[in-house]
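In response to a reviewer's request, we include the raw inputs and outputs for one of the modeled complexes. The two entities were modeled together in a single run.
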Amino acid sequence: MLFKTLLILAFMAYLLCAIFMVKGYSTCFRGFIAAGIGCNILALVSRGYVADRWYFYPMTEEVYVLPAAIALVAFGILRRSVTKDGGLILMPLVITAFVAAVIPYESVILSIKSMTIASPLFFLTEAASAAFFLIAGMMVLASRISDTNNKKRIDRLILWGFIIFTVCQVLGAVWAFLGWSYPFSWSTRHLLSAAIWCLYAALVHAHLIWLTRSAQLLFTIGGIIPVVYMVYHHEIIGGLKVLLGVFT
Amino acid sequence: MKQFFNFLSSTRLGFYLLILASFVLCAGAVTAEFFMNDYHDLNFMRFPVWLTQHADQPLLYSWILVLFAVLFLLVLNTLACVITYFRSIFECSQSLRRTSIFLFHICFLFFLLGHCLYEFTGTQEILTLEKGHIYGVGVTGLQITPVSIVKKAIVINEISVPMGTKAVMNAVTNSDKKTTMSLKSMSPCFADGYSFHLSMKDKDLSDTQIRIIVRRDYGLYALAMGGIIALIAVIFFMVNGVRRPDHHLN
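The model returned the following structure tokens for the whole complex.
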């Protein structure tokens, strides 16, 4: 259970880095976030070892990649400025790392459908764009609470998230065509991805039009909901089924 | 006329249409969660055929019709924007950033064209083939014979895990031209404007049988073109970002 142990260590490191961020200890913040990223990446690498061989695609399971992606983006933003807002910005990191550490471990199921380079690249780019979108959402919330102006930084996060998400959609279409014979499927997953793409395409244009702060807050934070559902789709549906089973 | 064109090319209109499209797609995603099988059929059917089969279930298709209307307006809006951008190419010097923005809009048009062609044109057929037997592929006019089928599997924890299929097929076209197709899982084959895919839903088949999907998808060309343009636009954008990191949002 090396994989789970490393994920728990990563969660603890991320939690400590968030606490030190709030307390204003920049060196400790940097140290613990680096330790968390290290443990997270080691956990991902260990997941790729199946039946005496290394496979790339199990290492890119989104639920486990997302905390590392958020940590890298957060580190890029907060490495120079340690603020109390940082605690709020790091909240998605702590939550996603916690989810990764506590969800029941399922052994890797090898699937021929995932054995193409488009599959791991799709999941990596999707996790990276989700990290940008989640942090942008939290930064909008933080700037609203503390009344600071982070607009340029938020716009840039949304823009880069959108660019990476566009690449992700192209990779997804290639993978779907190779594996299923059609580049777009009428399924929840694909429709939600298209919805997210449209939403962030709109937000990329938001700085060109007059948009109230409240509207931007609504759309950017609203964007978190489909992004979270996209990443944790299986877990949410599985959880709901368990709940429904309990109540029926 | 000019006023109408200005309205059509306005960023504000584009913004609200994108937000509206996002909401409609979200509603569709929720609906798809409850009617998975109905929407799965749409992956193998043209939209008009699917619509006639589900004409008595407005909940299934009403949001799709709204989506098509919104996307049509978005196409007009994007076309008007592209024309405006295209005019400005001759009026001021070009940066990589402006070019990448122009390319992003072009690729969006290609994506929508591809999806439109994909939903309204093209043909598809699913066939189960037995090694050594001759089959006529209705949509293509081809006659194909699987001559070799190899199914690979590995054993993990005493469970056999399928690791793909390889099939060689002889094909004869309408004009008696003979060709050999080598199909592999995750690696489709192209012939005569058709793509041939090995279906992975093959648990019910014996070792001498395969299931193939034959498609003629005109939208694929537009989608491929859109994908290539999108990747070029991303490269331009990144190069510009590295050169002038504060220049993205000006």
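As requested, we also summarize the result in words. Strands of chain A lie at 49-50, 53-54. The first strand of chain A starts at residue 49 and ends at 50.
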